[in-house]
């Protein structure tokens, strides 16, 4: 699946991942391939993701929104 993390200033990440864990406003949640479509708000925390090679990465965020649709996870952060 494709993960895109963008801010008002830059694209923070864009690439293929096998999983994404997000700091949702109602609790942390993980998105895997073929996840149901969703739209959610994010609180402060870390977006953790595993790339296709198995490397784990993390990006700190102050909040934002996430849209999951057709194996594309689009995250707008601030």
Description:
- This protein is mostly beta strands and 78 residues long.
- The chain has a single domain, classed as Sandwich (ATP Synthase, domain 1), CATH 2.60.15.10.
- Helix content is 0%, strand content 71%.
- The protein has strands at 2-6, 11-24, 27-32, 38-42, 45-51, 56-61, 64-69, 72-77.
- Strands 1, 2, 3, 4, 5, 6, 7 and 8 form an eight-stranded mixed β-sheet that branches.
- A hairpin with a 2-residue loop joins β2 and β3.
- The chain starts with a strand and ends with a strand.
- The relative contact order is 0.31.
Biggest sheet features? 8 strands, mixed
Topology, number of strands: 8
Instruction: Assign the structural class, choosing from mainly alpha, mainly beta, alpha/beta, alpha+beta, or little secondary structure.
Output: mainly beta
CATH domain class? Mainly Beta
Helix content: under 10%
Rounded mean pLDDT is: 97
Overall body shape: globular
Count of helical stretches: 0
CATH architecture annotation name: Sandwich
The CATH topology annotation reads as ATP Synthase, domain 1
Using only CA atoms, what is the Rg?
11 Å
Strand content: over 45%
Count of individual domains: 1
Q: What is the assigned CATH homologous superfamily?
A: F0F1 ATP synthase delta/epsilon subunit, N-terminal
Low-pLDDT stretches are: none
Along the chain, the helix and strand elements come as EEEEEEEE
- End-to-end gap: 23 Å
